[in-house]
Write a structure and sequence with these properties.
Helix content is about 40%, strand content about 20%. It is an alpha/beta fold. α9 (about 220-230) packs across α12. It is elongated, with a radius of gyration of 21 Å.
């Protein structure tokens, strides 16, 4: 099978199947062999690995993964791509194609079936509109993971690795940094894709921590706090949290907890570190 990372081969497949890009799925196919090699190097794929690929498209990166990994499970939402994938991946015996929405798939069950519950690596060229729910879903559902190596919009990659006090800092930054070590490994310009997106992309590797860098009594509660803090960025933390309907916290309680931490009652969420959110969560959780 011809390597799909070469633009003319991708175009030939699209023409053969008369494929129409679906805007609702945010489809942009990668056509750059150097970038594909970079993703493989960053993910450090070996025959020992079981890899879950999200959104394989026509199978461009899947071919690279299948050559290197022991097992590849590719989850594709667009049913029109399934016959193409069955063609472009026909010579690989170690690839399973699943036609489903990654947000509805029970990945824990797949890891159990395909890799005896041992941690997998996730590799993906993610549609921009759905990057955050996919990453949060992988972490919050505690899918056994070694790492996630993904192509995302450049500004989303930036958001994952920034610290407090910057405009990009938010719930995604904190969630990623609680569960994993983020590292941008490549910047990818729009001309590496068909069709060309309007924005630059980046490949980021999130290496899962064996143990989270901060300890917190109730992880779910901490993330509810974090989300509420950034839902209304302009508000002070005390106002934002007391307004959040699912938290049932009074302004006084929040101000009191902040005072215990030596912080001003007028501080905003974007000024707090992950450690401080964990501390605040523990203080408010016991009340």
């Amino acid at each position: 099978m011809a390597t799909l990372g070469i633009p003319q081969n991708t175009i030939a497949v699209l023409q053969k199947y008369n494929f129409n890009f679906q805007k609702k799925y945010g489809q942009n196919f990668l056509v750059d062999t150097h970038v594909l090699e970079k993703i493989m190097d960053a993910a450090q794929i070996t025959k020992e690995d079981c890899v879950v690929e999200i959104g394989p498209g026509i199978g461009t990166m899947t071919q690279y993964l299948a050559e290197r990994a022991g097992e590849v499970v590719a989850v594709e939402i667009d049913k029109n791509l399934i016959p193409i994938l069955e063609d472009t991946l026909s010579e690989y015996e170690n690839v399973t194609i699943i036609n489903d929405d990654i947000l509805k798939v029970d990945l824990n069950r797949i890891v159990e079936e395909k890799n005896q519950g041992k941690p997998v690596k996730v590799v993906a060229n993610l549609p921009y509109y759905i990057t955050t729910p996919i990453i949060m879903g992988l972490f919050e559902n505690h899918v056994p993971l070694k790492s996630i190596t993904i192509m995302v919009q450049k500004e989303v990659a930036d958001r994952m690795q920034v610290g407090p006090g910057t405009k990009d800092y938010g719930a995604l930054s904190l969630a990623v940094q609680y569960y994993a070590k983020p590292e941008i490994v490549a910047i990818v310009p729009p001309n590496c894709f068909i069709p060309r997106p309007n924005v630059g992309s980046a490949v980021i590797r999130l290496t899962r921590y064996e143990e989270t860098p901060v300890k917190v009594k109730d992880e779910k509660f901490m993330f509810s706090l974090i989300r509420a803090s950034f839902n209304q960025r302009r508000k002070t933390l005390a106002n934002g949290l007391s307004n959040a309907q699912n938290l049932y916290l009074s302004r006084e309680k929040v101000a009191e907890a902040l005072e215990k931490m030596g912080l001003s009652a007028t501080i905003r969420g974007e000024a707090l570190t992950l450690e401080q959110f964990a501390q605040l969560s523990d203080l408010l959780d016991c009340q």
